[in-house]
Please model this.
Amino acid sequence: MKSNHSPWLKQLKRTRPVASLPGDLKTDIAIVGAGIAGVTTAFFILRDTDKSVALLEASKVAHGATGHNAGQAVPYFERPFSDLVKEFGLQMAAEGQKLIESTWTLFDEIYQEAQLQTPLSRFTGYAGFTSIDQFQLHLQNNAWRLKAGMATEPMYLAEGAAGQDQIPDNFAELYSVIAHEQVLHLLETKDKVYLGALADPKGVVNSALFCEELVGYMLNHFGHRFVLAEHTPVQQVNLMRKGAVIQCETYRVSCERVVL
Model:
């Protein structure tokens, strides 16, 4: 297997020592994994409650998937919205979609309250369509969004695109027809195979640096009820009637709730 040299981890300039679990620990909430999900979960629990939190990491903060990803900040599920509606119903699918799209607000809250300096680039990105079937699938997503009272996603179709006459009339208000050259300009390509585009808010952040900086903030501001244990692999989680016991290599963590 080839070595994976992450540019995100290369930018880290850690100054704090690595501290593993010093002994058996009792805490209100234990979080397993100090990637971006675990770190941000710890932040909001500490900010919004008076609970004590232990963050357990087998390696070092953000050195797993978080430190080896593409750094994309994209608020969407990896399934079409219409699929979610079909499986879970419109109300539940819409609630889930609204929650995931609210992550921009959560990002803003973290940056403002923790005064983070890690750059977060936000912009409008465009996904391209090469067939009218792809385009119609996302039109159906937009139709469900509209029915749920959600804002629709801007969609653009090249004038004279093959198959345009197949689009139902009731979708007419869900997209705009523009010149083919404009579609290619939005997608920043010269490949004429693309016949449409969809606009979405997107971003890029060094997720490892983000986590490292946020952990430093939590250690400084919530140190009396926040424990970070790196190089502390979790071997077993035992769920009890009341609480849980987490077995690490040497010591145990007793908690009311565990987040995996």
